[in-house]
Design goal:
This protein is mainly beta. The protein has 19 helices and 76 strands. The strands form 21 sheets. Strands 57, 58, 59, 60 and 61 form a five-stranded antiparallel beta sheet that branches. The radius of gyration is 31 Å and the shape is globular.
């Protein structure tokens, strides 16, 4: 086979590593909520059968196995919903619902089989406003002799349909995937967004050329306006992309910014990024994805849009191809490396990662990607996504259809066909024998996935519902097939009979079903918004049937009510009318007609005054710019870079004018900067001595009076792994203040002249109570040896600012102690001297008691057992009881990495291949208590060449745990580090070195936390919290951490909670420090400017 073709497959069929396992049934049929009915029971025998030939196959048409869709609706107006299935190589099928899960195939009589090849998406819509549902079918596939025109079957109201796509202008000839009908311009009729997939071969593109704005007249997405019953292409003037790089597989329509105008989200496969179009209310859209969403799926498939957390905002879920089963992860997964990822970002394809994405709407023009926190990031090769209330508990659950027939991402297959002898064997008369090539592609059925919404943006994989039949599933719909008040499920499969699941839910949960009758030409009132108010909650729904993958659901609105027995309804009709209905009883289906309901005055929304207001005219102009150093080139098995953890800023009055000044440590090749706080603003003060060491990476700064002359001197800590471990630029430096803010460098090389280190933290206190300030310095990382424990240093002051390293005398245990990130001095036992608290990566929170100037570890201390990836410690009185509590910033829970005390993360350190270099193998503990490596086979082999012989293929490696990979001999001398918590946590001081861990709101867990500050921002007498974080310089297989847009936690009776003011503290980017100066909040970010916010007390 052509090696270029193999390379294309490897490059573009990409997957993501996860660490969950697919679930099995495990229960008897009587216990299952869903019953799978066979075709012999229902009469639905439809199967999307596919066969390939040498002339037409997956190598010649990349979407060969994408499958078909389903549309559901009552096409004969008999009160029972009917089903229409699309097929790729056989006729489409229409089944009439006869009741009691019995269906009759009426395709031929209805004349809706379709005459075009390769049908894909299907939508039921009343296109001519006669009150009867019509059927619009998208066609695709490069089949010889077929022009791919889409088909529109107009309902004749007598059980037959007439094809009239050309008469309506809807006979598009592109590679159409799906169509969504909606009234985007609010003129009272239905327009359509037509999703097309590029006809051009993937390998033919030059990614350096920006082809997105160039229109593809043959294909390309189209927005078509309904003009007196004829659809006109208005894409260009409406601002819709329609280029040759559009690989649309999913389109979702709904109001994303609560302006009552419908917006559009498009998910694109392969290298092109997704699109987010905001309706401008003037007939045009603005594409804003890169402004509002930071991370997106790399090969986006289907999508759905719904309010998953009942906050009134539509959220977005996008499917990708990350397997949930560990063995499949190890056998079908590969990733882009850092360089390729950066290349794509540079060329305008945004931050794409191989996993599902759940974009949580922040109601401020931004979204936070929370799929990893929600537990829905991995579902395998996934197509359709549907949010609907499976159990009528008032929360929308998630169904994902999975499976690919002939899995081209199987790594052993790709390795096999890359062999020159195999390639030659597959050639016949200088042509590829495609049938032989395709025959050997593995096909593994996988279960569809269901996630039950547990509230607080968290989902739980459902294990006992009966929906986990292994399959090759594509389009899917939910609907109440038997009118019993719960939602059933229908799934279109490749080379398998369609699934028809009956929901047999038992229990006390109530429901409500609403049929909307719109006015004019929008008879089903598409675009209507419904607010359902119960005694406990408020639920939100929008009328848009086109959902999931190539499918459309019943226009009936189904509402789960949990225990609520009556509700109030607020209905916003598409053209502005609003209807309020009070005390509607549960467990009924009723119709609301827009014409017959009395118009009610629109509700007025009130917004609380902003608690934090950005300072328009910033008094501090500074942008922190990290050097373009890639840690992964030095440490192949690392996942997070350590070279961009600054700046940690110092504040204090350095010139004696009574105003707090600021010192910002500079990254490599950017001088650290001293800013004087003057009436005119923060103005830089030239520092010749500081500028001499601009080549160093300064990560932290500390102001303290080193020489007891009454002014603040400066300690600049050097860090990162960018330097040689022997470089003089890794020494920390001390600068003496002349009292006016001018600093001169001391000749001391700190913390120890015998060896430079990468410093992670520095703190000052009078350790020995002699009246001067001493230092603790913690080593962040041993350059070139990630995971190896660094040392802590106790530096004693001789009274004039000269420091001696007395670690051995005062705290000898600090040698090779850990990977320090933060430390604090505080008199925890109130005995008159300062104790030392430290933390770091793969460390607990350690307290060392000061006894006559010497430190002693607290043995078996509970805080020490919280092993985390801690970034920062913030000390303050959280509960107003007069003592100091600890707020500890950790990695967070919105991550591929998960850790608990019973299932910890482990880092195994050893020179496994005995070549003189230590390797760090990161593992997680699975349900069987086996330690499984995160790294893929080829990643480990790149580092440890000997493993290639031990694991010659992916099949042998896919279930190998750490003990199978490394022999007892290879493990000799090994060191093991563990992590058992990743949660940012508040520890309340109980006295006598005892602390009580308190959980924080989930918003505090959505990204790594690096910066914390407190203040009484709401003027109620207690300490509130602002926090920031995020981390972008990570391996693409892990995905950046970007979900934090600033966090405000209000202190309410000692509990830190999110409130309506939480959104006011809005900060993008990688936050590294927060300082409060002159009652303003200064937020310092890596690679970005300083943000300043003013609390409005």
């Amino acid at each position: 086979m052509n090696p270029i073709k193999v390379k294309q497959i490897k490059s573009f069929y990409i997957l993501f590593i996860g660490m969950h396992f697919f679930w099995g049934c495990g229960t008897s049929k009587e216990e299952l909520q869903f019953k799978l009915h066979s075709g012999s029971e229902t009469g639905i025998t439809f199967s999307n059968e596919l066969s390939y030939t040498d002339d037409f196959n997956v190598y010649k048409y990349r979407n060969f196995y994408n499958g078909g869709g389903i549309a559901v609706g009552d096409v004969n107006n008999d009160g029972l919903v009917d089903l229409y299935f699309t097929a790729n190589q056989k006729p489409n099928e229409l089944y009439l619902n006869k009741g009691e899960f019995k269906f009759q195939r009426v395709t031929n009589d209805a004349q809706v089989a379709g005459s075009k090849a390769w049908s894909t998406g299907v939508t039921m819509v009343d296109i001519n406003a006669d009150g009867w549902l019509d059927i619009y079918v998208c066609n695709s596939g490069d089949v010889a002799g077929d022009n791919k025109q889409n088909e529109l079957f107009i309902n004749n109201q007598d059980g037959t349909f007439t094809e009239k796509a050309s008469a309506y202008g809807l006979d598009d000839e592109g590679f159409s995937t799906h169509a969504v009908f909606f009234d985007y311009d609010k003129d009272g009729d239905l327009d359509v967004y037509l999703l097309n997939n590029s006809y051009q071969a993937i390998g033919s593109f030059d990614l350096r050329r920006n082809e997105r704005p160039k229109r593809d007249r043959l294909g390309g997405d189209k927005l078509m306006r309904n003009q007196d019953g004829k659809f006109i292409d208005v894409s260009e003037q409406a601002g819709i992309y329609g280029s040759v790089i559009g690989f649309g597989l999913g389109v979702s329509v709904g109001d994303l910014n609560n302006d009552d105008w419908e917006d559009i989200f498009v998910s694109n496969d392969f290298f092109e990024r997704d699109y987010l179009y905001i309706n401008q209310q003037n007939g045009s859209f603005k594409e804003v994805l890169t402004e509002q969403i930071k991370s997106i799926s790399g090969a986006s498939m289907g999508a759905d849009m719904a309010d998953i957390d009942n906050d009134g905002d539509n959220d977005i879920f996008v499917t990708e191809m990350l397997p949930i089963n560990y063995q499949r992860l190890k056998s079908v997964t590969t990733f882009e490396d850092w360089n390729r990822y950066q290349y794509n970002v540079k060329n305008g394809y945004h931050h794409q990662f191989t996993r599902n994405m759940l974009h949580r709407n922040n109601d401020n023009g931004t979204f936070s990607e929370v799929g990893r926190f929600a537990g829905v990031e991995a579902t395998d090769w996934s197509w359709g996504a549907l949010f609907f209330d499976i159990n009528n508990d008032g929360l929308k659950d998630l169904f994902v259809s999975n499976g690919i027939y002939k899995d081209l991402t199987d790594q052993d297959y790709l390795q096999y066909i890359s062999n020159e002898e195999v390639v030659n064997a597959l050639m016949k008369e200088n042509k590829v024998n495609f049938e032989k090539l395709i025959d050997i592609i593995p096909s593994e059925k996988v279960p569809n996935q269901v996630f039950i919404n547990k509230g607080n943006t968290q989902f739980e994989a459902a294990k006992n519902l009966g929906l986990n039949t292994p399959s090759f599933s594509n389009g899917s719909v939910y609907t109440d097939l038997d009118n019993d008040g719960d939602l059933d499920l229908v799934v279109n499969n490749v080379n398998m009979e369609a699934f028809v699941y009956e929901n047999q839910q038992k229990g006390s949960h109530n429901h409500l079903q609403i049929r909307l009758e719109g006015s004019g030409k929008n008879t089903f009132a598409l675009g209507t918004k419904i607010k359902v108010v119960t005694s406990k909650d408020t639920l939100y729904f929008e009328q848009q049937p086109a959902r999931g993958f190539q499918s459309s659901v019943d226009p009936l609105i189904h509402i789960g009510l949990a225990e609520a027995t009556q509700v109030d309804l607020i209905i916003k009709w598409p053209l502005g009318k609003q209807t309020i209905l009070k005390n509607i009883l549960a467990n009924q289906r009723f119709t609301i007609n827009e014409q017959r309901v009395v118009k009610v005055k629109k509700e007025t929304l009130t917004k609380n005054p902003s608690l934090f207001v950005p300072v328009e005219k910033t008094p501090l102009i500074y942008t922190h710019r990290e050097a373009n150093f890639v840690d992964f080139h030095r440490e192949r098995l690392m996942y997070h870079m350590c070279s961009n953890e600054g700046p940690e800023v110092a504040q204090g009055d350095i010139n004696g004018d009574g105003r707090e000044d600021i010192i910002i440590p500079g990254p490599k090749n950017q001088p650290s900067t001293v800013y004087l706080n003057l009436k005119e603003g923060m103005l830089p003060l030239l520092q010749k001595d500081i500028n001499k060491i601009a080549r160093a990476e300064h990560t932290e700064s500390l102001l303290f009076d080193a020489d007891q002359d009454g002014d603040l001197d400066l300690y600049l800590a050097s860090g990162s792994i960018e330097m040689s471990p022997y470089s003089d630029y890794l020494y920390d430096r001390l600068f003496f203040n002349d009292g006016k803010g001018n600093f001169s460098m001391s000749p001391q090389k700190l913390p120890a002249s015998e060896a430079p280190i990468s410093t992670g933290c520095v703190r000052a206190a009078d350790i020995d109570n002699d009246g001067d300030l001493d230092l603790f310095v913690g080593e962040r990382i041993v350059t070139g040896h990630y995971g190896q424990a660094g040392s802590g240093y106790i530096l004693m002051n001789n009274g004039s600012g000269n420091f001696e390293n007395e670690t051995i005398k005062r705290a000898s245990f600090l040698k090779s102690f850990g990977m320090f990130t933060d430390a604090h001095f505080y008199d925890w036992d109130q005995d008159g001297d300062v104790d030392l608290m430290v933390t770091g990566e793969f460390m607990g929170i350690e307290i060392f008691e000061n006894n006559n100037g010497k430190f002693f570890p607290q043995k078996n201390h509970k805080l020490s057992s919280y092993k985390g990836w801690w970034n920062t410690l913030h000390l303050f009185d959280a509960d107003n009881d007069g003592d100091i509590d600890i707020l500890a910033g950790n990695h967070g829970l919105n991550s591929r990495f998960k850790a608990t005390p019973t299932q910890p993360i482990k880092l195994y350190l050893n020179d496994f291949d005995r070549n003189g270099s230590v390797e760090g193998i990161l593992t997680f503990t699975n349900n069987e208590q086996r330690d499984m490596p995160y790294a893929l086979r080829h990643t480990l082999i790149d580092q440890l060449k000997s493993l290639k012989k031990k694991f010659p293929n992916y099949q042998t490696f896919k279930n190998a745990d750490f003990n199978k990979i490394f022999t007892p001999h290879e493990q000799e001398g090994m060191e093991v580090l563990i992590v058992n918590t990743l949660e940012t946590t508040l520890f309340l001081n109980q006295g006598n070195f005892n602390f009580l861990a308190k959980p924080l709101p989930f918003e505090a867990q959505l990204s790594p936390i690096y910066a914390i500050a407190h203040g009484d921002f709401d003027s109620d007498g207690d300490a509130d919290i602002v926090m920031g974080g995020n981390l972008y310089r990570v391996k693409p297989e892990v995905g950046i951490y970007d979900a934090s847009h600033g966090i405000y936690l209000e202190n309410i009776d000692g509990e830190l909670k999110t409130t309506n003011n939480a959104q006011d503290f809005f900060v993008r980017g990688e936050v590294r420090d927060i300082k409060i100066v002159d009652n303003s909040i200064y937020v310092f970010r890596s690679n970005e400017s300083v943000v300043i916010l003013k609390p409005q007390k």
